Amino acid sequence: MLKQSQSTLEPRKSPVQARSTASVDAILKATIQVLLKVGKERLTTTRVAARAGVSVGTLYQYFPNKAALLRAALQRHMDEIGAVLESVCREQSGSSLEKMATVLVTRFLDAKMKDAKASIALYSVSSDVDGARISREMSLKANRFIAAMLATAQNELTFRSSAGCFHAAGNDDGCEPTVTRVRITGRRI
Question: Cβ(113)–Cβ(170) under 8 Å?
């Protein structure tokens, strides 16, 4: 599939009423189901509309083409993962670094593996639908959430440059005494 211009990747309109929101939701779920069943080359708007239980005309009200469907499905997937990260960061604010890291990694992996086949299928089409930009935007948001959470940690992160290891201050994790102490502030260095 050739890369699409940005305008052909954008949805035509956003749903406003509950019924139209339900239609778009069904279309995006059907997009993933059809992608998994027949692959990106054989995925068509007609197949997606049939699977979603909507007319092709309804599909075209929201998505101008196959690439826009795939991009919207990928965007939704990344938004869901981003929402999990944001939630974890809010919940773990003020916790120890060890707890923050454990919960963050666990919940991130849970979100990614919730439907591993769908994740893999969506990532396989990401280069066709500007997935790098979507990923970059999500990463920037996630970095802000994570930095804000880390800034509230109960303990400091320390680093010993000669040993090359990080550890939370107060934990006996085998690192030598620290050379540099870092307090995460959320500011870019």
Answer: no
Residue 124 CB neighbour total at 10 angstroms: 14
Give the whole-angstrom CA distance, residue 37 versus residue 96. Answer: 44
Give, rounded to a whole angstrom, the gap between the first and last alpha carbons of the chain: 40
Sign of CA dihedral 12, 17, 23, 29: positive
Tokens of 79: 């938004």
pTM: 0.75
Measure the CA–CA gap between 104 and 184, rounded to whole angstroms. 16
Per-residue pLDDT tens over the stretch 9-35: 555 555 556 677 899 999 999 999 999
Say which amino acid occupies 78: M
Each residue's pLDDT tens digit, 83-111: 999 999 999 999 999 999 999 999 999 99
- C-alpha distances in Å from residue 145, one per residue of 90, 100, 135, 140, 177: 8, 12, 15, 9, 30
Is 27 within 8 Å of 13 (Cβ atoms)?
no
DSSP 148: H
Nearest to 31 by CA among 45, 47, 15, 48: 48
**Angle of CA points 186, 140, 86, to nearest 5°:** 75
The H-or-E segment that residue 151 falls in is: none
